[in-house]
Amino acid sequence: MSPEVFVDILRDALFLVILLVSTIIVPSLIIGLIVAVFQAATSINEQTLSFLPRLIVTLLALIVGGHWLVQQLMDYTIRLINSIPSVVS
So where does this one cross the membrane (predicted)? Predict the structure, then answer.
């Protein structure tokens, strides 16, 4: 295995990880920012007020995008397994 092949595999894996994690985290970050602005505007300092909406949005993102997330992971795994003969030889 040449170093270029290893770097390509690692780059694809890291890109997939960033893609999968960002689809879950970005909606939660946006809701967290909205709730923080609301709390700052109204001077409400309740900890659960910021936690619960982020939890709900994260769970909704997993429910709605779960099929796509698993499909992307399966496609990468199948590509990786199918590339084994070309990498080894």
Answer: 12-39, 51-70
